[in-house]
Amino acid sequence: MIRPQPSLRRPLAVAAAALAGLATAFAFTAPASATNTSPSPSASPTVTASPSTPTQPAPSCVKAVDAKYTHTFDGPKGEASITLTNGPLCAGEQQELALVSYVTPSARFAVPQYVLDKSIKKFVGVADGELGVATLDFRVEVPNCYTQVDFLFGSTVIDPLTDTSDRYGDRKVGSSSGIGARSTGPRGWYNGGSGSCSAAPEVIAESDCEGSVELTLVNRTGNAAATFSITGSGGFTETVTVPVRKIETRKLNPGQAQEITVTAVGMKDFTGGWQKPEDCQQPAVGAPDADYESTCDAMTFRISNPEDGATVTSTFTPSKGEAKTLTVEPGRTGSVSFPASKGLTVTVTGDLDSGGPLAWEQPKDCAEGGAGGGEPGEGLPVTGAAAGGIAAGALALLAAGAVLFVVARRRRIRFTA
User: Which intervals of the chain are annotated as region Disordered (predicted)?
Assistant: First the structure.
């Protein structure tokens, strides 16, 4: 009897099933991988901690009194810089500094000195976490003559420097003590240069319509202060010092401005005075009212001057007798009279002009033989009974004469300037 050969299919199937079971058991018992991005609901997720980065501390700040600096300084070039080394300054704090150049009378320290140029800057405090300016740079013009250049803590600049003025002292950057010692570096001051400094003075005069003169004193292009001496009318004198590249003005009133002299070293003397500008408008002036009248006894001239008028002066020259001059101020009235006589004429000259002789004319109501009816001394006086009759007749005519007196006895003729 022949037996068939045993098959390998069954043992292989059993072995495969066993391996599958082992794999399943291993999956449930092994810990979850940290890189498993899709864990089963029953698996606990694994949290991976990232490495911590240390935070930068906020910048510290200092008060202005505790600040420290380093600086550079070049006096002949007029340049300087300063750096805050332990800053920034705290909020609300500040520190001002200045670089200033002077013109001086000597290469060594001497006075007076006048400022030519200056530069002022400052460090300002910042809020927490902010960055402030660490370095300030300065530059000023230096004159091409004797000079002094100072680098200073603070913004107060002394101008001019004189025998009696303040001094900078330890405010100078780089000083051995005081505030100037807060900065490390070279001495922040310089005296030197060559050649005397000189001013370039000039004067500009301008008159106004009210009679005043304004003087503009200029020292525009010089490298030293200019001193002007002013002399005016009425004993007026003044000395004015104009710093380098500056302008000053002085106004002289009408009483001082008629004759003006200005002198200064480096310019030709200025002489002049008030001159009426061409564009001045003439003020309105009231015209006077003038007339004259002939009465039986006199020839009378009257001038009425308005409040806004100008003073009027005229001369009245009669054909007989002495001339008379009359001056009438604004707002006033004046008059002159001459005794009436036959052939009397008066000529008016001056501010008012009659344009020729004006003749006295006898009014019609004057009695024959009266003072105005003939030459003085003509005729004889009437006496005795005739005189009484004439007197009675005169009484009868008095009432009518009174009415005609005002109307008929005066003759008014006007004349003007």
Answer: 34-59, 164-192
